[in-house]
């Protein structure tokens, strides 16, 4: 098979890495890819949201299967366009992708079908939003309805902060049309975890649980980032909780969508807040998480390609699916300054020292290859180093041993990835 993976982050490198192990695969392309993906795939210079060019490429190269990494092309309807052209593609269609593309769509669906989530109200009027804020207890959460590159959720400790957030979103339009409407909701407490599942619209195969670390500094200090590391499994997710999530969150969501005339196929990602063993949905994503995928895929024993094909064909119940009884920890190495401004073009040293290790994989995110063959930094999150171990403690030791070999100017990473899991 010829496979095209769309995207350029650590998540896409993990997908390419896992797909490349399949005996079903002859050739992998990645658009646009990065400096590390080049090792397993031919990188194609087409942007991840240029649906027309991607479709032309897939038709010209007779691609057998396209796997979409990021949310933007999914929300823009890449799956509908590819299917119309007779191309096989993995991910939800445009209507189903609203689950991530519109927070109001997701919240309304959860309310209608009894899926546990924070209490909320929706506003398209600034003044009404402000008077609602004044009537509610603090802290309170303000969310832009549409996609905002992970920045559209603001947790507000004071009324002034909440009013500032709705002013910026609805009046100043910092997220453009994504902020035409807002969700204002109750702030939940507890511990977060992510549950991802393959679903063909009917059957479900849960991926191993995981937890990411959103803040830039140790002990969850500093601003939010795209994610500074992740581990799998998340000890807070026990068997009972997992069964509850499958039945009352994942299944109810795909069944609810079906009642609305929408068949959901692809990865459904539920971001959960868990308190007293009870989960509530904070958000849905319609794709693999980044960096969760870098901690999840190394734990999947079976070939991922049959799983992807069965998801598309509606035969997910017929495929074999085995998870390794090992833990995995992924540590993100970022450019100093991220998530604000940072410099690019720094030479990354030490990669050769860990290339051959059995239990460690270096996934590239913001990297590129220079003309002389050096790997250079080219983004905020630069690398994701993932290591397996027989438990989280061993995986932490393995991952930080490998991280110690890598170096670039102003490199920043968290030293406490996975520590939370040891406190359980
Ligand atoms: P995002 O991935 O940008 O949608 O942001 C979601 C993050 O915002 C979650 O991972 C939580 O940390 C936080 N969050 C969202 N909704 C709530 C809520 N109702 N209560 C507390 N934290 C929330
Ligand atoms: N790590 C969170 C996400 O992928 O949205």
Task: Write up what this structure looks like.
It is a single chain. The chain is α+β, with helices and mostly antiparallel strands. 30% of the residues lie in helices and 26% in strands. The protein has 14 helices and 23 strands. It has helices at 10-19, 51-60, 71-76, 78-84, 98-101, 103-112, 126-135, 159-171, 239-259, 292-296, 304-313, 351-354, 392-403, 419-422, and strands at residues 2-7, 27-32, 42-43, 65-68, 89-90, 120-123, 140-144, 153-156, 182-186, 191-199, 204-206, 211-212, 215-217, 221-224, 229-232, 266-275, 278-285, 327-335, 360-364, 367-369, 375-377, 381-389, 411-412. Strands 12, 15, 18, 19, 22 and 23 form a 6-stranded antiparallel beta sheet that branches. Strand 13 and strand 14 form a beta hairpin. Helix 7 (126-135) runs antiparallel to helix 8. The longest helix is centred in the middle third of the chain and has 21 residues, at 239-259. It is globular and about 60 Å long. The mean pLDDT is 96. Adenosine monophosphate binds at residues 118, 141, 150, 152-153, 155, 185, 187-188, 192, 271, 282-283.
List the topology elements:
Blueprint: E1 2-7, H1 10-19, E2 27-32, E3 42-43, H2 51-60, E4 65-68, H3 71-76, H4 78-84, E5 89-90, H5 98-101, H6 103-112, E6 120-123, H7 126-135, E7 140-144, E8 153-156, H8 159-171, E9 182-186, E10 191-199, E11 204-206, E12 211-212, E13 215-217, E14 221-224, E15 229-232, H9 239-259, E16 266-275, E17 278-285, H10 292-296, H11 304-313, E18 327-335, H12 351-354, E19 360-364, E20 367-369, E21 375-377, E22 381-389, H13 392-403, E23 411-412, H14 419-422
Parallel strand pairs: 1-2, 1-4, 2-3, 4-5
Antiparallel strand pairs: 6-9, 7-8, 7-9, 10-11, 10-16, 12-15, 13-14, 15-18, 16-17, 18-22, 18-23, 19-22, 20-21
Helix pairs in contact: 7-8
This protein binds adenosine monophosphate and glycine.
Adenosine monophosphate binds next to strand 8 and strand 17.
């Amino acid at each position: 098979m010829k496979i095209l993976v769309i995207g350029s982050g650590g998540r896409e490198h993990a997908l390419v890495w896992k797909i490349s192990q399949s005996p079903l695969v002859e050739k992998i392309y990645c658009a646009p890819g990065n400096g590390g993906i080049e090792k397993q795939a031919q990188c194609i210079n087409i942007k991840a949201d240029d649906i027309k060019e991607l479709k032309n490429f897939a038709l010209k190269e007779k691609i057998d299967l396209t796997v979409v990494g990021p949310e933007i092309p999914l929300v823009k309807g890449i799956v509908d366009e590819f299917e119309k052209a007779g191309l096989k593609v993995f991910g939800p269609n445009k209507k189903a992708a609203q689950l991530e593309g519109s927070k109001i769509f997701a919240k309304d669906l959860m309310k209608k079908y009894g899926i546990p989530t924070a209490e909320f109200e929706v506003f398209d009027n600034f003044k009404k939003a402000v008077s609602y804020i004044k009537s509610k207890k603090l802290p309170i959460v303000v969310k832009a309805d549409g996609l905002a590159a992970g920045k559209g959720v603001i947790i507000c400790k004071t009324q002034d902060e909440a009013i500032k957030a709705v002013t910026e979103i609805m009046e100043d339009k910092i997220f453009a049309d994504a902020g035409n409407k807002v969700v204002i909701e109750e702030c939940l407490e507890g511990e977060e975890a992510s549950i991802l599942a393959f679903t063909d619209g009917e059957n479900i195969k849960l991926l191993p649980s995981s937890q990411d670390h959103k803040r830039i500094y140790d002990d969850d200090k500093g601003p939010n980032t795209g994610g500074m590391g992740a581990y799998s499994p998340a000890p807070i997710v026990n068997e009972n909780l997992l069964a509850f999530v499958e039945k009352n969150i994942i299944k109810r969501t795909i069944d609810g969508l079906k009642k609305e005339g929408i068949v959901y196929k692809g990865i459904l990602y539920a971001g959960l807040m868990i308190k007293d063993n009870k989960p509530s949905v904070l958000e849905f994503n319609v794709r693999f998480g980044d960096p969760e995928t870098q901690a999840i895929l190394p734990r999947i024993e079976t070939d991922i390609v049959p799983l992807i094909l069965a998801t598309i064909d509606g035969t997910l119940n017929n495929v074999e699916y085995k998870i390794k009884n090992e833990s995995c920890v992924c540590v993100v190495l970022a450019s100093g300054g991220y998530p604000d401004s940072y410099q690019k073009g720094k030479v990354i040293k030490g990669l050769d020292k860990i290339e051959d290790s059995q239990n460690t994989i270096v996934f590239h995110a913001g990297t590129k290859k220079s003309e002389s063959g050096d790997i250079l930094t080219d983004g905020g999150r630069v690398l994701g180093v993932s290591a397996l171990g027989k438990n989280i403690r061993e995986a932490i030791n393995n991952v930080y041993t490998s991280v110690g070999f890598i170096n670039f100017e102003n490199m920043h990473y968290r030293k406490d990835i996975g520590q939370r899991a040891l406190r359980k």
